[in-house]
């Protein structure tokens, strides 16, 4: 399993908002993106992490400790895995 290097800060913000229980439509509004764009990005993350559902995506994100703290900041571990710059 490898995290796709194309995951970016928007993907991590989507994951943090999903963790907070927001719907795809609400996430889209918060990030000024379309509902379908959010759904496509979530599907891409599921493919990248090798999981087949949203629940499994959440478990994998938790297992890999990709999100930190309450604010959804990207962890150093996630930055290393994805090659993100500060």
From TrEMBL:
<feature type="domain" description="HTH luxR-type">
    <location>
        <begin position="4"/>
        <end position="61"/>
    </location>
</feature>
<dbReference type="InterPro" id="IPR036388">
    <property type="entry name" value="WH-like_DNA-bd_sf"/>
</dbReference>
<dbReference type="GO" id="GO:0003677">
    <property type="term" value="F:DNA binding"/>
</dbReference>
<dbReference type="InterPro" id="IPR016032">
    <property type="entry name" value="Sig_transdc_resp-reg_C-effctor"/>
</dbReference>
<dbReference type="InterPro" id="IPR000792">
    <property type="entry name" value="Tscrpt_reg_LuxR_C"/>
</dbReference>
<protein>
    <recommendedName>
        <fullName>HTH luxR-type domain-containing protein</fullName>
    </recommendedName>
</protein>
<dbReference type="GO" id="GO:0006355">
    <property type="term" value="P:regulation of DNA-templated transcription"/>
</dbReference>
